[in-house]
Structure formats: C-alpha cells, structure tokens
C-alpha cells in the first residue's frame, strides 16, 4: 500500500511539473514592427498571423517616412523593433547606407516582378507601390470643351492657365514625388525652368495633399480641375461615392514619364532577437493574404502577382507603363539640394 501511495505521488509530481512547464513552452512571444504613421491593415489579417504563429504583433508608428528612417538609423545599435516597414525608394539608399537591415531572401520574392526589387542585397524587400500622377475632373473639361491634359508640357500651355494645384515638395510626399517627376522628365538642367513656366501659368501651390484634393480640386468643390494626386484616386472616387457610380468622375494622366512610382519596402532590423518570427512576418507581408488587404487600407497596391485586386480597381485604375526615372541613389544624394533649389526659385 505504501509503495502504491508513493507511485501515485510520483505520478502527481510528474503531472504537476509538466503542467507547470506547459505555459513556458507555449508562451506567446512579441514581435515589434516599426512603421510610418500611414500604416494600416485589417485587424483580422494581423490576427490571422498571430494565431498561426502564437505571437502578439506590436506596431510602433514613428512618424513620416523620413523620420522613421532617421529613428531606425539612430537606434541601430539597440533597435526599437524587429522589423521596419515603410521605407520607400526616395529614402532607400539612406536606409541601406546606414546598414540597418539584415539580409533575408524571402521565398515569396519569386512571385514579385523584378521591377520592384531595387535592393540586390535582399535587405529591403518590396511590399507595395503607388503612382503619383496628375488627376483631373472629367466634367470640367467636357463642359468647357477643352481637352484634358495628357502630358507635363500641357500644363504650361495658356489653355490650362490657373487650372492646376500642386503640393509643396518640402512639406508633402506627393509634392516631392511630383518634383522628382519633373526632374526625371526635364532633367536637372531643365526642371526649374519648367516650374517657372508653371508659375507664369498661375499654378496653385499648397502644403499638403489633403488641402490640394479636398479644398482646391474641383471634384471636391474647389476651383481647380487638375491636381497632383495618385493613380488610385479615380477608383476610390467610385468606391466612396455617396451614390453608386457607373464610371469614375476623375481620371489620372499616365502618359510616359508623367508619374512617379513610390515603392515601399520591409526589412528585418539588425540585432533582432526574434529573427525566426521576423522572417515569418516578412513572408506574411509578401503573401496574397496580406497583399490583397493593402489597397483599401493604405491606397497603394500589391507587388505579389498572385494577389487579386478588388473589382473596382481592376476596372478604373490606370497604371502607367513608363514612370519618371530617378534612381534611389540620385534621390539620396540630391534630395535636399533639389528641394532647397526649388524653394529658393519658386517660393522666394
């Protein structure tokens, strides 16, 4: 009887020990993802990753793209996060020069067109893209019997005098993208002359996209029928219209060299203590499940060729075949100079 009691006590002890160890073996880990302030994704998509990997994902928003890159660089010896999403091709060279990322060649890269893969070292992997393009209100041009603009050159024609609103490149991301468009199209020797011609043609310059699109653009009740916005804006006009629409009331100008393509990247931060989870998160961001959720949350588009776009985008989005050509290296080297030269020439 004594031996039997000892046997039972041993079983209980072993079982209790196993139970005590079980929470440790299944402990929920935390993955921290640094992003810019415009990051957004559906809670259900994040929850799917968390459930699949027994992890809690924390998002650390640290400002606009430039601020985020600076913070990642300043903290690279003691990283604030495991993964950084949101560096784009206007800041890519800076991020790579600062060596903030670890190399990771995701197997999902096989589903992504090489045109988006700007880092041959596999440190920054492409996630999404968006085209900054001129947008115009169709009804204005129909009512005034005027052909809508089809090129950057059209904007300095007297026929389009006083019809254009653009954003300040020193204070606005699409404003910077449009400045880079003009540099790519007219060259460093010609872009300021082009801007002076825009000023002569009474271009309206505002500080941000919200003001340009929702206060100055005639589609929103403003005075100007042409605005610098995104190639995605026309389908969004349909998606968020108060009444159902059969056609988009606006259109984007996508002629060769008239748009600038912004590509956003994700990378594993050097020094992460969660390398395995970081790799899984990067793979997840490149997967169709995540990619298909991007457009309605961040107004940009998937790079994975297997991701299926919502029908409205397929119908009304016009993607330019040839965008302005300004390399990330040239942008990194000249960004501040170009902005300062533009400010001195156009605003003073």
Percentage of residues assigned to helices:
40-55%
> What gross morphology would you assign?
globular
**Name of the top-level CATH class of the largest domain:** Alpha Beta
- Ranges where pLDDT stays below 50 over 5 or more residues in a row are 1-24
Structural class by secondary-structure content: alpha/beta
- N-end to C-end Cα span: 99 Å
**SSE pattern:** HEHEHEHEEHEHHEHEHEEHHHEHH
- The portion of residues forming beta strands comes to 15-25%
Total beta strands: 11
The CATH architecture term of the largest domain is: 3-Layer(aba) Sandwich
**Mean pLDDT metric:** 90
Looking at CATH, the homologous superfamily of the largest domain is Periplasmic binding protein-like II
| Rg for CA atoms | 25 Å
CATH topology of the largest domain: D-Maltodextrin-Binding Protein, domain 2
Q: How many individual helices? A: 14
């Amino acid at each position: 009887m004594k031996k039997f009691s000892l046997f039972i006590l041993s079983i209980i002890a072993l079982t209790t020990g196993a139970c005590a160890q079980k929470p440790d073996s299944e402990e929920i880990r935390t993955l921290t993802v640094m992003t810019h302030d415009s990051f957004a994704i559906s809670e259900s998509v994040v929850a799917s990753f968390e459930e699949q990997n027994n992890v809690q994902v924390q998002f650390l928003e640290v400002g606009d793209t430039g601020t985020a890159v600076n913070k990642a660089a300043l903290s690279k010896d003691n990283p604030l996060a495991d993964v950084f999403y949101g560096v784009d091709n206007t800041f890519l060279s800076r991020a790579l020069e600062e060596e903030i990322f670890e190399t990771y060649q995701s197997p999902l890269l096989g589903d992504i067109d090489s045109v988006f893969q700007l880092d041959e070292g596999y440190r920054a992997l492409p996630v999404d893209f968006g085209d900054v393009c001129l947008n115009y209100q169709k009804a204005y041009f129909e009512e005034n019997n005027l052909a809508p603009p089809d090129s950057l050159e059209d904007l300095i024609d007297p026929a389009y005098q006083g019809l254009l609103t653009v954003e300040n490149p020193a204070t606005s991301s699409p404003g910077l993208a449009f400045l880079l468009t003009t540099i790519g199209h007219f060259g460093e020797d010609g872009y300021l002359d082009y801007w002076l011609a825009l000023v002569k043609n009474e271009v309206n310059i505002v500080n941000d996209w919200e003001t340009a699109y929702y206060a100055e653009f005639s589609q929103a009740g403003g005075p100007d029928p042409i605005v610098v916005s995104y190639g995605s804006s026309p389908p969004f006009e349909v998606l968020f219209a108060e009444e159902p629409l059969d056609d988009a009331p606006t259109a984007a100008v996508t002629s060769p060299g008239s748009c600038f393509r912004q590509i956003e990247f994700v990378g594993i931060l050097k020094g992460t203590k969660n390398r395995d989870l970081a790799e899984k998160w990067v793979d997840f961001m490149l997967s169709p499940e995540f990619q298909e959720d991007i457009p309605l949350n961040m107004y940009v588009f998937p790079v994975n060729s297997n991701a299926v776009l919502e029908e409205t985008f397929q119908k009304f989005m016009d993607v330019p075949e040839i965008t302005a050509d300004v390399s990330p290296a040239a942008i990194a080297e000249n960004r501040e100079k170009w902005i300062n030269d533009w400010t001195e020439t156009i605003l003073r």
